[in-house]
Amino acid sequence: MADPEGSSLWLxxxxxxxxxxxxxHGEYGTLAAIIIGILVPVLFSVFFLxxxxxxxxxxxxxxxxxxxxxxRNARYSELVQVPWEGALTVAHLFEQSCNKHAHNKFLGTRKxxxxxxxxxxxxxxxxxxxxxxxxxxxxxxxxxRVSSFASGLLKLGHNIDSRVAIFSDTRAExxxxxxxxxxxxxxxxxxxxxxxxxALIHSLNETQVSTLICDVxxxxxxxxxxxxxxxxxxIIYFEDDSKEEHAFSEGLSNYTIASFGEVEKLxxxxxxxxxxxxxxxxxxxxYTSGSTGLPKGVMITHGNIVATTAAVMTVIPxxxxxxxxxxxxxxxxxxEMAAESVMLAAGVAIGYGTPMTLxxxxxxxxxxxxxxxxxxxxxxxxxxxxxxxxxxxxVVKKVEEKGGLAKSLFQxxxxxxxxxxxxxxxxxxxxxxxxxxxxxxxxxRTVLGGNLRFLLCGGAPLxxxxxxxxxxxxxxxxxxxxxxxxxFAGAAFSEADDFSVGRVGPPxxxxxxxxxxxEEGGYRSSDKPMPRGEVVVGGFSxxxxxxxxxxxxxxxxxxxxxGMRWFYTGDIGRFHPDGCLEIIDRKKDIVKLQHGEYIxxxxxxxxxxxCDHVDNIMVYADPFHSYCVALVVASHQSLEKWAQETGIEYxxxxxxxxxxxxxxxxxxxxxKAAKAAKLQKTEIPAKIKLLVDPWTPESGLVTAALKLKxxxxxxxFNDDLEKLYA
Length: 726
Fold this sequence. Notes:
Structural class: alpha/beta
InterPro entries: AMP-bd_C_sf, AMP-binding_CS, AMP-dep_synth/lig_dom, ANL_N_sf
Helix content: 25-40%
Oligomer: single chain
CATH topology of one domain: Rossmann fold
GO molecular function: long-chain fatty acid-CoA ligase activity
Radius of gyration: 26 Å
Organism: Vicia faba
Protein name: AMP-dependent synthetase/ligase domain-containing protein
Catalytic activity: a long-chain fatty acid + ATP + CoA = a long-chain fatty acyl-CoA + AMP + diphosphate
């Protein structure tokens, strides 16, 4: 899954002047810039409102368990468990929501009109697709399909006491299969479509999966490992749009194989009474892509899913059946599963897309046809920070390339809105906002469909610059969430009216968050003015532990004297006076250098990622040395542009990355970013190695959420790291 979010291509055809509605840079444009940039701020200064008093979002609370500084959501004195009475499990919630919203649109998929293959200059072939409008099924229709699949699964021969695994990219049938299993109290094992052979074997065998549901294209991954699978009996495959007959290898002949449609038909003809689960039953064993070693299976109960769902529904303003959500992130990831659980509970329409077809310029979209966001025009969208960073970088680079009036006017508009967001100048009226939106920002917003009103961000820390950029240019607040697979994504969530950056909001109403002192790192819950310490989450979203791994479960999960379950995240946070959490460090990312200085690798990487020449970076610190080094995936576009401007000759990009001049240029860029972030000298990499190939989930070097897998990176580039310290 190269470029898993497809986001590096979202903005490659943006023309800022066209977006702003300009056809030339004549005198009328200059006059407009003067009027808007100078006179409008003065004219509307009479509407100055003054700074608002800070809103209390989280309040201290006395809790049981290990001592620390604990906070709860300010709006709820008691922890929230369910979205409404009777919705104790996902199966109950789903059925009740389908009854309530029976005639509303629910799941939408785009029709394949045609596809073709194009050949690039280097001989590689790429598939291009022409997709039509979304075809929708109502909540009632989807519920009928879920019921049929649940019955068909048992009629096919699945043992109700064994587990089902879903091994597929996100699509409507993924969710239907999940809910079908829940109607018969069957635990589902989720596996990333990009998972490697060893991890796939481990996941299927450890959980003793008897039925595998997968994309037909992923069946070829089973052929070479079939002899190592100890419990698999049935395979159900999702049909593709080609309507071609599928011939399966003799190696799969020992399995019962059926298409998803055949299983639905079987269940429709021979219905079976549902067997709904209890709230403490394990709904999902979710295998994390993991940053180290083999993936761990997190046991998520129905109660965990329902609690997070109920909590997030209180945060998204005016959530309901008028909303449209674009689903494209992996459903095997806790972030997407939690998001879709929230959407189905609220009666939202969910339209499915893919990372490679999101926009009109995505690399799998046939030229001249429309991407998913253009057709769907979603009001709600999820994104990991890597997507948002790339959107921001793409627009900024286009503005820089245009220069002149385009750049000046964009900067005036951006600074005006930034001042308003920060509260340093609150005199911007609705009329001025309308002017900026019409002239500057409206066309940029069409990149995400034009109707976006709320964006959910999670999976990794989001930079303050990128968060402000989305708030201003896209005009949609970002709900930045903090959570883990071990808390079913439910820990903290920033609120829609909070435009501060760098924070993840107060605790969700389904849990408490406690900061426990970490003396070794110098973080204490008694610190002033902000308590600091390891982030520990307690409440209804905290999961049951790791599958078949009691030692690891006992290490990070604790149950206190009152029965409250706590998860020790390993993240370091601090609470602001208004009760909002900020993640400032991670215990595993902290390294002590030779002379006793501490370096937070994650903090340094986040700061240096803003460098134009850097596409990705991993900072490495050897405790036996007094400085750190870094592996840098160089930005093709930025570094090649620099080479052309400076007259550097090179054969190919690999040759360019090996040139001392290029290394020096990137080091200087990194140093500039480090100084802007006020990093200490020991935190700035003294040496770097430039790399050509991007780090993708398929390469096994980053997770599905694009977080670094340090151990894998260190192993792969061990020789390069040793040379940097030589």
